[in-house]
Amino acid sequence: MTTLASPEIGRAGAAEFTSVTRDDAALRRFLHGLPGVDQVGAEGRAAALATRSIKTTAKAWAIDTAISMVDLTTLEGADTPGKVRSLCAKAARPDPTDASAPAAAAVCVYPDLVATAVDALSGTSVQIASVATAFPSGRASLETKLHDVRDAVAAGATEIDMVIDRGAFLAGRYLQVYDEIVATKAAAGPAHLKVILETGELATLDNARRASWLALIAGGDFIKTSTGKVTPAATPPVALVMLEAVRDFAAITGDLRGVKLAGGIRTTKEAVRYLVMVNEVVGDSWLTPSLFRFGASSLLNDLLQQRHKLTTGNYDGPDYVTVD
User: Is position 7 within any domain?
Assistant: First the structure.
């Protein structure tokens, strides 16, 4: 277990982090004072967790749990209102032939399509998430980014997925990144804020840990691996580091924050392995859509096919599920 030790932090809650964010030097000392990540050890533990198997009854539970954690996502330049309405119908009723299949957690779209999703999902439990802050690059003025956020929330978004300025982070301008997250959180108002780290561009697990902590102390409700536009995206070692961050943050502050894995997760086997990791690293309190999500488009289809296989004993043809 990673142990965070810092004389500047007590157990009084998240507000106690004020002292480490008073200036760039203090924030740098804190972030670079975090325990280093043993990359070989992280990769080894992630690989060991991936070997765990679960029995049929547990697998049925895991599949339904994973379905309920999916942020069904379409973030393409060619997205249309019709495509978003179709995606919303699938999120609300993933399997039209089986009402017992749980709904997805959310639909994630660009800000200009939020109103379409709000209309399509009226009366359902599915949340409306929107990417913002000049997604996916994050290359825009803060004023433009915040306008992006306010537009999405005004249109009805209940969750905002923001991207951090990776250039600022990699240049060591940590306070700038912190201030942008704080400002975005304020602009999001009642909407939950997911902070996208784009770990594939951060290069090292040490940077992934620092960015995770930076996002958490700035007020992010979730930390998210990636935009899905950069390779690599979600990987087991990165997921392990991020889960350790929310675990240690909770141990210090008592605040439970979420993790969202996005990009490259396509199969039920992968999703179940991540659920095992969540259970082992942070515990079953995080096995809920309010604290763990998958950002995906194709994953839901495989989950539905595997669910039907468990129910009927037969594999489905490719036309059993809708093509997004």
Answer: no
Q: What is the DSSP letter of 187?
A: H
143 phi, psi to nearest 5 deg: -60, -45
Kindly tell me if the per-residue pLDDT of 312 is higher than 50.
yes
| Paired tokens of 322 | 């809708």
**Residue 17 backbone dihedrals phi, psi, to 5 degrees:** -75, 0
Cα radius of gyration rounded to whole Å, the chain: 19
Please report the pLDDT score of residue 197 as a whole number: 98
How far is C-alpha 161 from the geometric centre of its chain's CA atoms?
Answer: 8
In a 3-state reduction of DSSP, which class is residue 40?
helix
Half-sphere exposure of 296 (CA within 13 A, CB side): 27
Query: Which pLDDT tens digit goes with each residue over 77-132?
Result: 999 999 999 999 999 999 999 999 999 999 999 999 999 999 999 999 999 999 99
> In CATH, what number is assigned to the domain containing residue 68?
3.20.20.70
Give the separation between CA 57 and CA 15, rounded to whole angstroms. 43
Annotated active-site positions, please?
161, 224, 260
Which residue's structure tokens are 């899905």?
A: 228
Domain count, the chain: 1
Q: Which residues contact 271 (CB under 8 A, 6 or more apart)?
A: 62, 66, 265, 294, 299, 303
Q: Which pLDDT band, with edges at 50, 70 and 90, does 3 fall under? A: very low
Does residue 23 lie within any of the structural domains? no
- The token pair that represents 130 in the structure block: 């929107």
With cut-offs at 50, 70 and 90, classify the pLDDT of residue 65: very high
Q: Indicate the pTM of the whole model.
A: 0.92
Residue 139 in this model has a pLDDT that exceeds 50 = yes
Q: What is the C-alpha to C-alpha distance for residues 284 and 281, in angstroms, rounded to an integer? A: 9
With respect to residue 236, please indicate whether it lies within any of the assigned structural domains: yes
**pLDDT over threshold 60, residue 6:** no
DSSP lists the bridge partners of residue 108 as: 73, 129
**19, part of any domain:** no
Per DSSP bridges, beta strands 292-296 and 106-109 are unpaired
Angle between helices 56-68 and 268-281 (to 10 degrees): 90
Cβ-based neighbour number of residue 226 at 10 Å:
27
List the domain range (segments joined by +) for residue 218. Answer: 30-311
